[in-house]
């Protein structure tokens, strides 16, 4: 009888509501590409497959009719362009083509859904089995349309003068000089492998990422490599460690956060998109953006993720992605939940989501992985840049669009929060309102400052490429050491 009473008591309790995903913002790196030292840089077949597989995982998780956690109100088979926004830098075939391949995994050819019966009883299926045409929006950049993934040093092209100064401060730091001296013999020992492209004077820590990128591409694609016996597992690990150290130093500094301008502006776009989803009651629930690893690194630093693991201070793998979920346990049957009933969860996959399931991590040094929306907004607003006048102010830019922006605003922006970001000149308030597209899409690939234009015996053997070669980035980058 007691057991029966207990069961009846449990039956009387209200059932816990299933969680609903109301919105999603995905930021993804491109897939495998040819080395930057071998221009023009192109997406490889392997790279296309990596991002396609990642898009397929996100489809199975959020989009398909039988998705694990379906995105609320999102069309599952036929894309509704009003429900999503996709962005990638212009004039960049690696990032643009990565976005297209990802989208075909997310919304594959519609097949029977695209077949129509005409009045004369003829059935017509759209080309390519109902291939779904999803536009990838482009945002103007300060790089004047340069092919970003074809550039070796992008902080100078970012247009943010103070960020350039900050990154160059790293190149004159004791930390940098120590790493340079300690690794000099290591890089010189690699010359038999790389000397067709890198001169002896360029085989050093200054070009740590460019050399790593070059060797990594050869190890993946080449049938033969000069002096390949030098590329032991230990050597390859050390090469990656040095590349990670170099790029982290250029991407983020806790006492000089203007260096992380790419992560700050990405934070601004994420806030704007998620705010629009909440305010618009889910009108545009899905936002996807493609960029390069420098944006990941600077955002990781600002969001205090390195405190969890040193893995957050290294260059992310090809097709890596991070996702921000808007979730609720409130009922959505009658109305869209209010902000007080919404939380945010952060996921990250260091590699294609199809191979590395995105894991959940706490942001901002918090203990909880599920943050109230108000807490998420408050923490992001401490470093997010979303307003053009403030971007101009923290970057120290007064020309071009900034001249127009400053003439119509006092540069203080709107919204709440008085958190500051420091540069080498002063403490400057970061904005938390409006939208800026100039920097987020730059994917600040903070790396090798020396542009390399000639080829060697260590040539990349391409399986095939998905895009025609584009012209090399115009001009030498600013701030080039």
Automatic annotation (TrEMBL):
Protein's UniProt name: Histidine acid phosphatase
Record family assignment: Belongs to the histidine acid phosphatase family.
Signal peptide limits: 1-18
Source taxon at top rank: Eukaryota
One Gene Ontology molecular-function label: phosphatase activity
SUPFAM superfamilies reported in the protein's UniProt record: Phosphoglycerate mutase-like (SSF53254)
Transmembrane segments: 432-455
Keyword check for Transit peptide: no
InterPro entries: His_Pase_clade-2, His_PPase_superfam, Histidine_acid_phosphatase
Keywords: Membrane, Signal, Transmembrane, Transmembrane helix
